[in-house]
Amino acid sequence: MRKNGKVKKLKERRGGFERFARAAARTAGRPATFGVAMAVIAVWACFGPVFHFSDTWQLVINTGTTIITFLMVFLIQNTQNRDSEAMQLKLDELIRASGQCHNAVLDIEDTPLPLEPEPIGAAVPRAPAVVHIEHADAAAGPVLHRKR
User: Fold this and answer.
1) Comparing C-alpha atoms, which of 60, 31, 32, 65 is closest to residue 46?
2) Are 133 and 147 in contact (CB under 8 A)?
3) Distance between CA atoms of 85 and 131, rounded to whole angstroms?
4) Measured between alpha carbons, how far is 27 from 79 in angstroms, rounded to an integer?
5) Nearest alpha carbon to residue 1 among 80, 99, 97, 82
6) How far apart are alpha carbons 120 and 81 in whole angstroms?
7) So what's the pLDDT on residue 15?
8) What b/e readout covers 10-38, taking b as 16+ CB neighbours within 10 angstroms?
9) Averaged over 126-130, what is the pLDDT?
10) What is the residue extent of each domain of the chain?
11) Residue 4, class by beta-carbon neighbours within 10 Å (0-12 exposed, 13-18 middle, 19+ buried)?
């Protein structure tokens, strides 16, 4: 696979948070992590009778899950941004590599949005449709095949 300038820039700009986010996302998605989370909940549930199911006992799990959820939102967003950017780079490369594709909308995500919404495809010229008519039989009528 050929690497263009954007891919090199992406790899060069990986900082501490980027490395941490990748490692955390990789770790969070493993079955062992799910097992650890289940074990923590099981241990917490076992201590319920010891603490007489007190408010503090409930507050421990509520606080822990709230903090983890809050932090995971940012990790998930980072992963989504990274995946989206990688997908755009791959699609851009496919459009550039194909001589038959129209590249007028290649970097459309970087353009400012117009004040009045209009269909994105309105500015892209379309190839005229070619209609081929076959006469199958007189009773059924003509069969139309649309080609682009």
Assistant:
1) 60
2) no
3) 38
4) 13
5) 97
6) 22
7) 82
8) eeeeeeeeeeebeebeeeeeeeeeeeeee
9) 52
10) 5-110
11) exposed
- CA-CA-CA-CA torsion for 36, 41, 43, 46, nearest 10 degrees? -160
- Report the candidate in 16, 6, 14, 23 with the shortest Cα–Cα distance to residue 85: 6
Res. 126: pLDDT tops 90: no
Report d(CA 53, CA 50) in Å as an integer.
Answer: 8
pLDDT at 1: 44
For residue 137, which phi and psi values (nearest 5 degrees)?
Answer: -155, 165
Tokens of 64: 């822990």
pLDDT in tens, 69-123: 999 999 999 999 989 989 988 888 887 887 776 666 666 667 776 656 566 566 5
* Alpha carbon distance 103, 100 (integer Å): 9
Please provide the distance, in angstroms rounded to a whole number, between the alpha carbons at the two ends of the chain.
Answer: 30
